[in-house]
Specification:
Distance between the termini: 6 Å
Structural class: mainly beta
Helix content: 10-25%
Oligomer: single chain
Order of helices and strands: EHHEHHEEEEEEEEEEEEEHEEE
Shape: elongated
């Protein structure tokens, strides 16, 4: 449902909506748009009023954000197609509630990347078997990749796209990403450093020097078919960005702030995890899903948000 929330803190918008609903003609237009979308001529015919009268009232309803209009090509030229934009209007006449931070979580399976580049050694594994051939970069484009629970490469990156739907009526105060990862060595080797970098919306947050590729015991969630001689688990890392900078596991790692990420410029929030081509320690990466390694989680993005004043509520089904 599409809700509009109004309060006394935004009197200009409150007056615009009150004005829009203070006319019998405009109320009748809203009633007709409950049935279906209509153009100006259709509305005028149904209301038995001049087209100019409908056009003037449509402008007022559109300015109040109660309807939307789109240009429609027709026999008589271009017409405005009108449709209702809101289902409910809520008016709070009391004192506005203090700002409240909401935490919104998105879980991304490691195999659901939208872009990648991988060079051998590399591979993908699901919870029951190896996907395709080992050390073949083309397997990273196989449809079965979405079921991956462990992926690895010596050079390259994987990039994920998270929904930014929540940002239509909220602004972000903090963004955090967490995932389990380690270096990529032959079999496994605990003293195998790798410089693993993270980017949000193509802005590099910083680089974590992972100390090694971990094995020697089975990961808590690693399947039994996976040999003990191979990588078994990683470290859970938390990357957090706010208006003060970027933290990695509560240690400041860079001066990148939320403003620099331009979170509202695209219809998604991109996350890239990989090895820079000029990295000092190019020790590769293993990335773990919820059914592999020591932690029962995929990639998690947390957005701490506050509601935008005077904006419509989130769409709810």
């Amino acid at each position: 449902m599409k809700n509009l929330e109004l309060n006394l803190e935004d009197p200009q918008r409150l007056c615009a909506v009150a004005k829009a609903l203070g006319s019998e003609v405009r109320i009748r237009i809203m009633q007709l748009l409950n049935e279906c979308s209509m153009n100006i001529v259709e509305l005028a015919q149904r209301l038995n009023v001049p087209i100019s009268t409908v056009s003037n009232n449509i402008v007022i309803l559109e300015e109040a954000d109660l309807i939307r209009t789109e240009r429609q090509n027709g026999v008589r030229g271009v017409m405005k197609l009108c449709s209702r934009k809101k289902d409910n209007i809520f008016i709070n006449l009391g004192k506005a509630a203090p700002d409240r931070v909401e935490s919104m979580f998105q879980v991304m399976p490691i195999g659901q990347y939208s872009d990648c580049w991988a060079e051998p050694v590399c591979g993908l594994v699901n919870s029951t078997n190896i996907i395709g051939r080992m050390d073949d970069p083309t397997i990273f484009y196989d449809p079965d990749r979405v079921n991956a629970q462990l992926l690895w490469f010596r050079k390259g990156y994987v990039e994920y796209r998270f929904s930014r739907q929540a940002l239509t009526d909220h602004f972000v105060t903090c963004l955090e990403v967490s995932f389990e990862a380690c270096s990529e060595a032959p079999n496994y080797r605990k003293d195998w450093p790798s410089d693993i970098s993270v980017w949000i919306n193509e802005v590099e947050l910083g680089t974590w020097q992972c100390p090694g590729d971990f094995g020697g015991r089975r990961g808590r969630y690693s399947p039994d078919f996976w040999p003990l001689s191979s990588t078994q688990y990683g470290l859970l890392k938390h990357w957090k960005v706010d208006d003060k900078g970027c933290m990695l596991d509560d240690q400041r790692i860079s001066d990148v702030t939320l403003d620099q990420l331009h979170l509202e410029d695209k219809p998604y929030i991109s996350l890239r995890i990989g090895i820079r081509e000029d990295a000092l320690h190019q020790g590769g990466i293993n990335l773990f899903g919820e059914k592999f390694g020591d932690y029962n989680q995929a990639i998690i993005m947390r957005l701490d948000c506050m509601k935008k004043s005077g904006n419509e509520g989130r769409n709810e089904q």
